[in-house]
Fold this protein.
Amino acid sequence: MKRILLTAAASLAMISSAAAAPFQWSAGSGGNDHWYEFVVLGSGDPSLMATQAEALAGSSSFMGLGGYLATITSAAEQTFLNSHWPGAGSVTGQFLDYSFFLIGATDRNTEGSFEWLGGPEGGNPLAYTNWKPGEPNNEGGEDYVVAWWEDSATGRWNDVPDNPGIRGYLVEYSVTPVPVPAALPLLIGGLGLLGYAARRKRSPTEA
């Protein structure tokens, strides 16, 4: 499966990303009926800044549901996502090739006060966390959060800066209305070009 970003400017730039089919945490199994998707950049693509991955997630849609960087709000949700994590070595090109994925938490508004970026929980403070011991530490000005840091199968979190270093991010789809057209302007690092994310069609799989 591929996601293609087409930049509308003097030149054309492409970023492709591979992802497993979205999977659902169904209410029947104790979940929220939301869908999730682990997205990994293609091997030839430049790494993303956290804000770029945020825009890409926000421009995604699935089965008429709007996408956003995932909000992990309970230990049960974390455990469910751990069971679908692609695993160590699934993402390359990151720090020591750790297979971490950006999620939707930030303290960019108030240092040390983490809140969710989007979805139904957007703007709410974090009631559940899964920090790696010693984190968050804001080393070098870190305002965003990744999970599965250091290839932790328990999904441990770490705060990271808004630097080009993101090669995987986790999208959540819920009842958030999808704008028409379902695309957001994207600033792809260094290019300074306006991008739009194309919709993708998939076949759903239920967990």
